[in-house]
Amino acid sequence: MSLKLWGGRFTKETDKLVNDFNASISFDKRMYAQDITGSIAHAAMLGKQGIIDKESSDKIVNELKKIKNEIDSGDLEITDEYEDIHSFVEATLISRIGDTGKKLHTGRSRNDQVAVDTRMYFREQCDILSGLLKDLQTVLLDMIKQHTSTYMPGFTHLQKAQPVTLAHHLSAYFEMFIRDCGRLSDCRERMNECPLGSGALAGTTYPLDRDFTASELGFRCPTGNSMDSVSDRDFLIEFLNDLSIISMHLSRFSEEICIWNSNEYGFIEIDDAYSTGSSIMPQKKNPDIAELVRGKTGRVYGALISLLTTMKGLPLAYNKDSQEDKEQAFDALDTVRDCIILFTGMLETMKFNKDRMADSAKKGFTNATDAADYLVKNGVPFRDAHGIIGRMVLYCIEKNIAIDDLSMDEFKSFSDVFNDDIYDAISLETCVNSRNTAGAPGIESMKAAIERYEHYLD
Ligand code: ARG
After folding, report:
1. The pLDDT of residue 279 is above 90
2. Which letter, b or e, does each residue of 397-428 get, where b requires 16 or more Cβ atoms within 10 Å of its Cβ?
3. Per-residue pLDDT for 1 more than 70?
4. Is 455 a catalytic residue?
5. Distance from the CA of 270 to the center of ligand 1, in angstroms?
6. Which residues fall within 8 angstroms of residue 23, CB to CB, at 6 or more apart?
7. Separation of CA 200 and ligand 1 centre (Å)
8. Mutate to test the pocket of ligand 1, among 114, 196, 201, 327 (most ligand atoms within 8 A of CB)
């Protein structure tokens, strides 16, 4: 039996290089389960509608189930001499049940078949990735709860700005991952329409029941236009966009971990299991995993831009260019999945050097705003207070001390409004914990955030 589904109108063998260039089985074989499940639904529908006889339909369905079980268990190997996974499954079916198997492709094209396979495959991946993000958020929430009083400098322009807590800093990432999960679920919702029954491009003359196959395969409804159904790859572009944003978030977090891990900062200690050494410099312990997660963002963006570019000039309906959607989407998916898993492990085992973080917050004049606010609360207009504290900071820089180290006399030399309570007013604890607007680092605000996160993960 021929390895091809379409030899009839050809008089010559395909060139060997053309075969290799054209084939997609080396990468689309990972969708075998979706391909077979789609075929089972299609065959059952053909039988139900009387398009093929019930006996043939049952025979096809049973044999397809066996084929799937054998591939699952490793007893049946998917070999690369077929053009694609669709050809492999159909040829295997025909080799086992003969002419009956030849009825499967009635009222169907590989164009709607690949569209349904791809949607089913990536629909499941949306759920898997959301699950992994939730695992990461569970680890994050644990750390957030532990570090509501771990003080550190908050930065703008990578300059120390105002004190925050580690819990507050980590919760910024928690929020990003909430949005990432939301995007994946939106994407899944739009993806969840069934293109099966669209045929090659113009539907079919058979009385297919598209509602039946859509519901058998867990889709919300059939797609609305057969030409759009076979040529649309928006759902993959959206998925790759979501992956790109997840990668961007992980990359920003990784960048901070690299900075925090530097000798100059020394905020964290990455676990030995998640760092590597140097072949020449014995003292080195490098944050390679964080760097790789940051670095791999490029290939994920690449997949998005690649598919957008592939699609931009395609006339309706199906064109072989669309086959280029899968390899990079699979690569981006594998990359992001691995990044989330590794990042979660690295985070979970990381140790924070609390003293060093608090010390860094104390030294960087992060309480200068609070010192100015102290003056304002004692009747000085804010613009004047800003100027007074600015001169005070300059004085401290010259003496190489923190604002807290000034004596009462020194304070008074800048403004006689200052009193003994200034020391408490500009302590790290006060600076952080008097910031209790919603979303701020103060302990009361963080309690509310933690409650919200617990509810979200529930
Ligand atoms: N391997 C193809 C793809 O991934 C399947 C559809 C092929 N259809 C066709 N008419 N050649 O897009």
Report:
1. no
2. eeeeebbeebeeebbeebbebbeeebeebbbb
3. no
4. no
5. 46
6. 80, 82, 83, 84
7. 10
8. 114
Average pLDDT of every residue of the chain: 96
359-457 — its CATH code? Answer: 1.10.40.30
For ligand 1, the distance from its centroid to the CA atom of residue 319, given in whole angstroms, is 8
In the set 26, 95, 185, 278, the catalytic residue is: 278
Domain 111-149+164-206+225-353 -> CATH class: mainly alpha
User: Is residue 317 reached through a cis peptide bond, with omega within 30 degrees of 0 on the bond before it?
Assistant: yes
Q: Closest by alpha carbon to 90, among 36, 10, 29? A: 36
User: Which positions ≥6 away from 118 have C-beta within 8 Å?
Assistant: 31, 34, 236, 325, 326
To the query of whether residue 157 is one of the catalytic residues in this protein, the response is yes
CATH topology of domain 16-106: Fumarase C; Chain B, domain 1 (1.10.275)
Q: Write the pLDDT tens digit of every residue in 177-200.
A: 999 999 999 999 999 999 999 999
Domains in the chain: boundaries? 16-106, 111-149+164-206+225-353, 359-457
**Furthest C-alpha separation in the chain:** 101
